[in-house]
Specification:
It is a single chain. The protein has four domains: 28 residues; 96 residues, Beta Complex (RNA Polymerase Alpha Subunit, Chain A, domain 2); 90 residues, YbbR-like domain (RNA Polymerase Alpha Subunit, Chain A, domain 2, Beta Complex); 87 residues, RNA Polymerase Alpha Subunit, Chain A, domain 2 (Beta Complex). Helices cover 14% and strands 50% of the residues. The protein has five helices and 23 strands. The longest helix is centred in the first third of the chain and has 20 residues. The radius of gyration is 44 Å and the shape is elongated.
Length: 308
C-alpha cells in the first residue's frame, strides 16, 4: 500500500479520531489544578465492652488533596470515612497515626497532608453508677414572692463512663430553669447538663421539675392610723390621735392594705375622771397579724362633766 492510499483511505474517520484524541488530551493535561481540604469523618468500631473513651477526640479530620479540579469536586461529594478499629485495645492511651497512604482516592489525585495526623485515644475501665439529679435555678421570682420548695421526678438516673470520672461524681446537675418574674407554681421538663463530662446516660434523660412559688411574708408599717374612741358622756382628750401599726402578712397583699381597714380603738367609757396611759386595742385586716403599735400607749385625760 502506498503512503498516499494510507492517508486517503477512510480519511474522514481518521480526522475525527485525531480530533477526539486532541480534545481528550487537552481535558486531561490542560485542565486547571487545585488544592482543597476535604473533611473525613472518623468512625470508632469494635470498642471493647469493658472500656470507654475518656477524652475528647475529633469527629473528623481534614485531608488536603491536589489534582484536577473536576476530579477533586467529584471526590468531595463522596462519603469518605476513616474507620479506627479498637478491637485489640487495652486500658491506657492509644496513638493512631494517619498517613496519606491510609486513604483510597481516585488516580490523578495526591494527598498532600492529613490534619491532624495523630489521634490520641485514652481508654479507661467502664463504670456504671446511679446518681441523684439536682435542679439548677437562675434569676429571681417576682418581687414579693419566694420559692417554697422544688420537686424533681424522677430523682435519679444511671450513667456509665470512665471509672476515674464516674467515681468522683456525687450528683448530676440539670439544665438551668429561669425563674425571672415568676409569680406562681409551674412544672418544666428539663434534661441533664453534661457539659464537660464524658458520660453515657443509660437511665432517664428527661426530668419533670415542679417549682412551688408562694407570696413571701413580710412586715410593713402603716402610718397615720386614727385612734377611735369609745366613751360615755365624759369630756375626753387623747394624745396622739394617730398611731403607726406594724402588720405582718403576704408581701403582695401588704401593699394593698388601706388605713381604714385597720381598727385602733380605746374604750374609756367606764373610767373615772383623771389622766391615764392606755394601750389601744388593735384589729388587723383578715390574713394579717399586728406586730406592734407606735406609740404603744395613748395619753388619756378625762374631765369631770360640766354641771347643768
Amino acid at each position: 500500500m502506498r503512503w498516499k492510499d494510507f492517508f486517503l483511505k477512510d480519511w474522514l474517520l481518521k480526522i475525527l479520531a485525531l480530533g477526539f484524541s486532541v480534545l481528550l488530551w487537552s481535558f486531561v493535561v490542560g485542565q486547571e489544578k487545585a488544592e482543597i481540604g476535604i473533611p473525613v469523618p472518623l468512625e470508632i468500631v469494635n470498642l471493647p465492652p469493658n472500656l470507654v473513651i475518656a477524652n475528647d477526640i475529633p469527629s473528623s479530620i481534614e485531608i488536603r488533596v491536589f489534582g484536577p479540579r473536576s476530579i477533586i469536586k467529584n471526590i468531595a461529594t463522596k462519603n469518605l470515612t476513616k474507620v479506627i478499629d479498637l478491637k485489640d485495645a487495652a486500658p491506657g492511651k492509644e496513638l493512631i497515626h494517619l498517613a496519606p497512604d491510609d486513604f483510597t482516592i481516585p488516580r490523578g489525585l495526591k494527598i498532600l497532608r492529613v490534619k491532624p495526623n495523630i489521634i490520641e485515644i485514652e481508654l479507661q475501665p467502664l463504670l456504671r453508677k446511679r446518681l441523684q439529679v439536682k435542679p439548677v435555678l437562675i434569676n429571681s421570682v417576682a418581687m414579693g414572692y419566694e420559692v417554697e420548695r422544688v420537686y424533681v421526678e424522677p430523682r435519679e438516673t444511671q450513667v456509665s463512663g470512665s471509672a476515674k470520672e464516674v467515681s468522683r461524681l456525687k450528683y448530676l446537675e440539670l439544665n438551668p430553669i429561669n425563674l425571672k418574674g415568676v409569680r406562681e407554681t409551674f412544672t418544666e421538663e428539663v434534661g441533664l447538663n453534661l457539659q464537660g463530662l464524658h458520660l453515657t446516660v443509660e437511665g432517664p434523660s428527661k426530668f419533670k421539675v415542679t417549682v412551688y412559688v408562694r407570696p413571701a411574708r413580710g412586715e410593713k408599717k402603716i402610718r397615720h392610723v386614727p385612734v377611735r374612741l369609745k366613751k360615755g358622756d365624759q369630756r375626753v382628750t387623747i394624745w396622739p390621735t394617730e398611731v403607726s401599726v406594724k402588720l405582718e402578712g403576704e408581701k403582695p397583699a401588704l401593699d394593698k392594705v388601706k388605713i381604714e381597714e385597720i381598727k385602733v380603738s380605746l374604750d374609756v367609757s367606764k373610767l373615772k375622771p383623771g389622766t391615764y396611759k392606755l394601750e389601744p386595742h388593735t384589729e388587723a385586716p383578715p390574713g394579717f397579724e399586728c406586730k406592734g403599735v407606735t406609740p404603744s400607749k395613748i395619753k388619756v385625760r378625762i374631765k369631770r362633766k360640766k354641771k347643768q
